[in-house]
Structures are given as structure tokens and as C-alpha cells.
Amino acid sequence: MSSEKYLFTHEDCYVKVDKGQLIIGNALITQTFDLQGGMPRIVSIRNIKNGDEWLQPGNIAPMFKLPGLKKFAADVMYISTDLDNDLGIADFHIYAKVDIICNALSLIVRNTWKVYPGSAFVQHEVSVKRLSADSSHSSESRALMIPEAWSKNKQPSETQYDDYIGYLPLAEQHSRYEIIQLSDVTDHHNNLVRTDSALLFSRGHDTCDGNIAFIEKSLRSSGLLVIKEGPTPFARLGGNEPDFAFVGLGLYVLGTGLSPEESWDGEFMPAYGCVIGVYDGHEASRYALLDTYARKIHIDRPERDFFFMCNNWGDRSRDGRVSEPFLLKELEIAASLGVTHYQIDDGWQSGATMNSIHADQAGGGRWSGYHTYAADFWAPHPERLPNGFEPLSTRAEQLSIRLCLWFSPDSEDNFVNWEKDAEILINLHRKYNICHFKLDGIQLHSKRGERSLLNMMRKVVLESGNRVYFNLDTTAQVRLGYFGRTQYGGLFLENRYTDVGNYFPHWTLRNLWMLCKYVPARKLQIEFLNVRRNRGIYGGDPLSPNACGILYSFGATLFSNPLAWMELSGLSDTDAELLSQIIRLVAPHHKAILSGHILPVGLEPSGTGWTGLQSVRNEYEGYLIVFRELTEDESHSLKLWGLERKRIRLNKIVGTAGPDVLAKQSEPEILTPDSEGRFRFALPAPLSFSLYSYAVEG
Questions:
Q1: Within a domain: 302
Q2: Residue 312 lies in a domain
Q3: N or C: which terminus of the chain has fewer CB atoms within 10 Å of its end residue's CB?
Q4: Which of 594, 628, 662 delimits the end of a domain?
Q5: In terms of domains, do 566 and 447 share one?
């Protein structure tokens, strides 16, 4: 039975069908889609708070096009809605599905929307599968009456592109856009954020790479956020189109990730996703909306998501030192330092990867095809760990340390062995209480492979009761990037090594400082190394790790999940003692720091200026870390987020008086902003920093 009207609500969210239109929204945003002819067309995006409409009327262009499906025509449409929370990862939201049945092509094209209470954005994703004899819709699904096809004078318009996930006919010519391009493959990239900004032009045609678009009106304060939920440009699947195209006043979000030759099967194949949100046009509101988006799709659990981790790989012994005695010693040192998680990298397993020091003896080692090569590839190494993980997990539990592991999902044949990989991880979790797995060696070749990889992660999350957290390695190959369904954990950002001279503490700080506007700092693992190793490689460089010292290097990671990228047994006694002191001072505050919205302050880190990070807990309190890099300027004025006209009380938690010198504690102080809303800070020496909590006075 077909229906002309439909309504589903949850708190302030709603999905309704009325007079041939689908309307999705909440108290902050509403989106309207015309269903004429069975192909949704977006006709309205409205900011409820300020009444602003973003789209020009009369749009007749389809809201998406899939490669190879130009002649797509609907025979029937079904709608269903439910509440969902993505296996407990996300906040509860309305999950709406509109299935478009095309009998001529034997396909079902599914549109899904997610709308969250009190949040000014809506997620959309399109997916496709083969229509089979047993394809049916549940009793909760409602058939929708497809309005009459377009009149002769109003046929669906030909579009500039044939492979896109979103099309927005923008109404306001007097607008500026800014595209944010993020880079991964960090083994080869160290400039991770680029921006491209320009004015809209009614006769223009501009293309840009990136994941984020901000569009802001010139004549009034109003902003539109568009996110392409997919990988970085280095890892786009399907065609090689750019990510965004402005054709006149029309914005295309390009690239579904699907290939025309993709053979659809009986499981839905998702394209990349598209998020549309609205805000008031102010810079701080841009980043607040991105932060809200991140918090809605991944609810932070501090006991699972926030940690001080050590991974043994950073000293470049590779798997050469992995053994039960070595790891037991490492656990003892980790406990003495205050490290909460210890992750054993590549080498715990019986099989050898291409990174193993024994790769030559193992025929070159493997980087996929693990299950084909050996059925016991992922069993504990019989010589290095003759007793398996039992002694390590027992001692780790006694020391209140979480034991964590590195793992490489099998990329062979588009992750055809994903269920075997999932069972390995589930068994390790159940038997040894391992909750954190670093996923590495991932090579995506198609959306089919991406689907299998995500199926693996979802199965592990489900079977573990949402206790497993994935550290997704972003350093090489074709992977998920920053916005490609990474909600099941965090990001292992970069490999840096003193052995090759590519680790500088200010570079690491800069990457965190640059990224945190767009990717939550709490989602990032940021490394610090044993700064005394390989001093000769750096010569007399005044910004070398040794010149900065262990405290400064650790401080650069503090507003993230710090990663001791080293063998702890290689630390000098002096550095181990310094680390122990500072970790114990900051540990009581770390969860509160990461729970706030972290934003950059000061100058972009260069090694020679004043810089910092601010964690905004709410409008009255937060945390602040200020760095005096290698500069003779003894003080500097910083503008802080949301505090331009407010006096604040600063309480210093810990600070340094130069490399490897902990500063004395000091009394709280009251700071008043100057006429430009800036606060004056002073630090005692170059290459020093201070961590503060702050609260608004009065």
C-alpha cells in the first residue's frame, strides 16, 4: 500500500513525507527533498535558528549520480525509519532509509539519512545492491507514492558530472568558500593541512581536493558546512575526480568511490558519505560544529578512548627484541612511568611480515595473504613468546596496564578473510582482555574491500560489547583517511624516527596544532621519542630532539593521546625520572583536557615562536598549554577562544624552565585581556612550556 504521508520523530528530530516531499531535520536544521520521478532532488537547506535558506528554488538536478547508472528510473520507493546508535559507538539518532527499486536494472539504491538531537547537521549516504528474488522489505517499511514524472518542460537537468554524492544549487552569489584538504600517508607528507579559498562566481568552474567545505555569506553572518565522508585525495577509490566542484553557483560533492565495472552483489555497497550542516558564520562556530559532529558519531568513553600509550617500534629494532623477558621488563618500566597502555608492535606473531628482521629467511615476508601463507600466522611466536600472552597479560593486569597489540588485516582479495581476522581479534580480546589494536598494512583496492574491512571492525566492536578500540594507522598505502568511517577508534598519525633524522618535536606539535581544528585532538595519537638516540645525525641543530629534551617533547603531545614511541628500557635514568614526574602531575587532568574542545592558539609552530593549545571545557573553564619555542622573546600576547572580554584565573599544573628542567610551582594569577582581547604570558627560558587550568573570574 502506498502512502502520501509519513512521520517519525525522536526528541527534536523528525522525518516526514508530505505532498511528494521528504523532510528531514530537527530544531536547528531542516532539509527538504523532492521525490518526483523517484529520484530525490534537494530543494531546501534551512538554518532554523536564523531562518536562512541556502538553496535557490526550482532545482531539478538529481542529488546524486552513480557511475554507470545514467538510465536509472524508479518503479517503487520504500521508506523506513528507526533509532540507531551504531553498535553503541554513536549517540542515538533517527536512521531513515529510502529504497528506490529499479526493476529494469535489477538494483536497489538505498538512501540513508542520520539526524541527531540538538545537532545542526544531517548525514547522507547512498548504497546499491543487486535486486534478487528474495529481496523484500520489512513490515515496518512503507511504500511511497512516487509523484508524477516531470512535465515535458521540466525534465531532470543534465548535470556536469556523472559520479557525485551531493549537489547543492546555492542561492547566494555573494559568498566565499574555503576548502580544507587534509593529507595522510604521513611517511611521505609532513604538511597535513592545506586550504583553498575563493569567491563564488556565477559563471565560474572551480575544482578542489579536500574533505571539508565551509561556505559563508558576505552580506549576513551565516555558514554552511559540507563534509565528504571519505579518504584523502591519496586514497580515493573509483574515478579520479576532485572532491568538490563549483559550477556557477552549484556545488558538486564528487566521487562516490564506486566503479562503473563494480559487480553489485546481494549486500549493499556504500558510496562515500556527505554531511551538511549549518552555523552562524563565525569562525569559532565552524569548529564547534565539526566537534559536535565528531562527538555525535563517536561518544567518548574516557576509560577506553584516552590513554598514555607506549609502542616499542619507535627505536627501530623492529621485531628483533620482542621476547617475553624483554616485554616483562618493559611493563615494569611502563608502570613506574605512569604509562597506562603498552602496545606490542609487529613481531608478536609466528608469521613474518615484510618489516621483520627475519623477512629474508621467510621468503621476503608478507604484507597480505597471511591466511593463505600459514594457518597459524597469527598465533603467538613459539620462540619469542613460548608461553603465549598469559605471563604478559597477567603481569600487565597486576600493574594496572592495558596490554595492546599491533595487527594487520589481510588485504588479499578485497579482505575476503575479514571474518577470520575478526575472530582472531575477538579471541585475543576475550582470552587476554586486549582492547586496543593498531591496524596496519591496510591496502584498499575497491569499495568492496572497504566494506569488508568495516565489516571486520563492526563485528569486533559488536562482539566485544563496544570495548575494543582501533588505532588506525594513517602512515602509508590506501586507507580510510580522517573522515572515511574511522569512528571505531582513533588515528595513529605518523612514524617518525631519530634514526633517519625526521623527528623534530616542533614538527609533531605543528601537525597536532594544524589538525585539531578539523580532527579532534582526542582522536589522535601523537608521538614522542627517546630524544638521546642518534644525536650525531642531527649535528648541532638547535631544534634537535636532544636540544629540546624529553620534557618538551612529551609536552608537545599532551593535548592528544601521547605515544611513547620507543623501547622504554632504552631511556636514561634521568629521562625516565623526569617523565615519571611530569606524567604523574598531568595524569589527573588528562581526561578532562581531552574531554574539552581543543583548538590552536598563538602562532603556527615553527620552532622559533610562541604557540599553544586550548581545551575549552565550557564557557567558564578549560585548560591551556603555552610553548615558548627557541626565541629570545620572554613574553607574548595570545588570543584565547571565547575569552576576549573576560578576566581569567590561571592555575599552573606543571611547567618547565628550559629543556629538562621542571619549573617550581607558582601561585594562581589573574590575567586581564588587553584592548585587542589578548592575554600576556611569560616563560622563563627558550624551549619551555607551561600547562594551566583556567577559570573565568566574576
A1: no
A2: no
A3: N
A4: 594
A5: yes
Same domain, 253 and 399: no
Q: Are residues 227 and 373 in the same domain?
A: no
- Type of residue at 142: R
Is residue 58 left, alpha or beta, with left meaning phi > 0 and alpha meaning psi from -120 to 50?
left
- Per the document, the length of the chain is 698
Q: In the 8-state DSSP scheme, what is residue 473?
A: E
**Whose CA is closest to 680, among 629, 606, 628?**
628
In a domain, 242, yes or no: yes
Q: Is the dihedral of CA 254, 260, 266, 267 positive or negative?
A: negative
Q: Same structural domain for residues 105 and 197? A: yes
Contact by Cβ (8 Å): 156, 62: yes
C-alpha cell at 182: 587534509
**On the CB side of 28, how many CA atoms lie within 13 Å of its CA?**
17
Same domain, 89 and 218: yes
Question: Residues of 207-216 as b/e, b for ≥16 C-beta within 10 angstroms?
Answer: ebbbbbbbbb
Write down the residue that cell numbers 511528494 correspond to.
Answer: 20
Give average pLDDT by consecutive 10-residue segment, the chain, 698 residues.
Answer: 79 96 97 90 97 94 89 86 98 97 92 98 96 70 71 58 96 98 98 98 97 98 98 92 96 94 87 98 98 98 98 97 98 98 98 96 94 97 98 98 98 98 98 98 97 98 98 98 98 98 98 98 98 98 98 98 98 98 98 98 98 98 98 98 96 97 94 97 98 95
C-alpha cell at 560: 592528544
Instruction: Indicate if 287 and 263 belong to the same structural domain.
Output: yes
pTM of model > 0.90: yes
Q: Do 609 and 590 share a domain, yes or no?
A: no
CA-to-CA distance for 118 and 49, rounded, in angstroms? Answer: 11
Q: Is 172 buried (19+), middle (13-18) or exposed (0-12) by CB count in 10 A?
A: buried
Q: Three-class SS string for 75-140?
A: CEEEEEEEEECHHHCCCCEEEEEEEEEECCCCEEEEEEEEECCCCCEEEEEEEEEECCCCCCCCCC
377 touches 351 (CB < 8 A): yes
Residues 36 and 128 in one domain: yes
Question: Contact at 8 Å (CB) between 228 and 274?
Answer: yes
Residue pair 55/61 in contact (Cβ under 8 Å)? The answer is no
Domain of residue 361 covers 318-594
- Strand arrangement, sheet containing 21-25: 6-10, 13-18, 21-25, 29-34, 41-47, 52-53
Q: Does any domain span residue 333?
A: yes
What CATH number is given to the structural domain containing 675? 2.60.40
